[in-house]
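(Structure overview)
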Amino acid sequence: MNHLDGFSQKEKNLFKEIFKHHDLNHNKKGIKVCDQILESHHNHGETMAMKALLLHSMGRKEEGRQLAREAEQYACKTCHIVPHVNGLIARNDKDYVRAVACYKAASLIEKTNQQVARDLSMMQAMSRDFDAFLDTRRRMLTLRTRDRQNWYGVAVGQYLTGAFGDAANTIDQLIQAEAQTKAEITPVELSHLRMFEVVCNMKAHGPEAALASLDQHRGDILDQYQATRLRLQLSCDAGAPDMVSFEQFMQLNPDDIEAHEMVVKALAESPADLASRYDDLIARYPRSHVTRFIPALYGPEGSVMTVVTALVKKSIAKRSPSLYRELARLYAVRPHVRPLVRQYAVDQLETDAPDETKVWLHVYLHHHAMADADAPTALSHAEAALGLARELFERAKEYPSVGDNDDDGLVDADVAEPHLVLYELLGTALKHNGAIREAAETLEAARRMDPNDRFMNTVAYHAWARLGDFRAADETLRAFIRDEPDICVVELQNQHFKVTTARSRTRAGELLLALRDYRDVTRMFAAMREDEFDFHHFALRKHALTEYVQLVEYETSLGAHKYARGAAMGFADIAMAIINGAEIDTTAAKAYVAEYEEIYGRQLKNESVPDANREREPDPSFLGFLDMSPAAQLAEVQTVLRAVAHTDQTQAMEAIVELRMFKPMVALKLVKRLIAAGDAVSSFMAEIVYHVAMEVLAEPPAGLSATEQRLMAMAKMQFAKVEKDVVGTAAATQLTVAECLTVAPLTAGEQRWDLLCQVSAAGTVQQCLRALELLHVAGLGGREREFVEAVRSRYPRFLV
């Protein structure tokens, strides 16, 4: 049976036009054609499905979903269009599980359809089901062996499933087969393939096999920089560094410190031999900083301070504010040098060195004190550096240089105003001493000196946001954007802006707006993962296989990013407080919505607004969160937590969410994982979850079925078995300040207060600010003054 049975030739042509309109994004024209066909064939499932897809693409998503469900009832059993369309709709809705199921149904109907198989493989890659991805790609290769993209797909699937040797063999077989058929492979394509083959051999058989493969195909690789760098790395990993490749690479980039360290560690030469070899390199590459730095790292002990002193003098002469960061690698290798360099800088301040030199010595000592968490000392050095710089500037204005170009014989002094970096250091030092307002005012003054400096603009924005002056922060940001700051930050995916704002709003008690900001950050990461979709087909089409697998590995690890985890936990902490019945002040949130309604001149929920403009409107969902049922709220928290990499903290929070959703057996598995971790903090978290479980299981909700009641009783017995492994841990564990902040979001009431008191007694200013956030979320805002006074005993300027 054909899906166009009963159609006239004209109607068949009209049906084909629908696909053209969809491909060209002419949705309205496509819908008109669909309506023409449906006038004669009211229940034609394939036409209904295509109309549903066009409606969904126009933004009428619910209408499209409903029509797609109706189309399933009238679908032709021998045509793949309806399940394929349902898969496309599910994919656009980011429901990858349903999309995979629909694509599989479509591929069972038409097993030879390459487009369906390609879409299925992309969804399997997006959902990280690499075994199924490889099976689908193998089936595509069987159907069309002349298509190189199918070979590439199989090789990538083998790589992602860990069969690196098979991936290398697949690429080699492809190249040999194309050579036999005299098919043309462009030099760029061949270069990409050979580099991917070398990487696969390295992972499968080690550096020796990869080195042999690289030498065999070196002539096919166009990127000689990458090939030389890779050959040097492989030879060092094999224990016999190729000095010819090292010399070639030095001509390309003598300042690659990792390349230098690879060779030094592989050679294991004596310090004297190393110093002699690097004397030659310094003579040949006099402008290279790294060739002078390596002898300080690995050269003779007696000459270290001589080398370091020369480096310090050179950096100071260049007015380099990053001197401490450059020397940090040296301090990690030779810790005893650190106090010596500091003492050298202090001694230089006591000499008659020029004031300009002393400015940058103070900058170095500021960074040194910041690394030691000595905020008062860092502040004194920052103030001294800026004070000296101002004196130099004033002195230069009083005694301008003499020239012969002006009639009066005077020209402007060749001295600039104090470097903006000095203001930034002062603002940072003030922040770490708790003087948040002074820091913001200092950084704002620096920003106004050079309004075109994007870095200072960003720093000033963070300072105002940290202070809680969001209007000043927005005005700062408007210097570089055209639209409203709140919208542009989301569109440009600037997570750091949103994280700073969310934390400040939490400290101010504006929990709903903080909830919105945290949710925006999680959506940014979700959008980054979604952006991967278009790269699957593009990478295979452009034969960029190495870059493809690197991107997949990066996207897989995206949930481990500190902003992703921090936003997820911040969202979960506030959301759980709302779910547990905390009183939430909605005044600031309603004022925010009212302000943006006025800006855009229309109501947020106006259904006549086109979907294309909807994403540019303020997101009112943070207000809607209050109207959700507890089950829906918990599901939202669960979705956010599952999108990030699992840590002990996120697993403990997820266990609490599972308990609130009355899924105790899932929570029990998570508790057992925490116990198995074996460290004190994990055990502490396990005990917190255990007590929540006992509280939930003691009074099961009414209305449970008999099966659910038995499950709850069984879970209570299972939790009782782990009691001896967790109870008492909290009392016996002495947590560090960082560990207190990690555990606190899982607690409530007095237990959270006790943990935060430890932070106020020993934490840094940044840690105390974080503790203030947790204080407000737990409904302990009334004790904020007590907490602040405790912090001021150590930081007198804290939040003054």
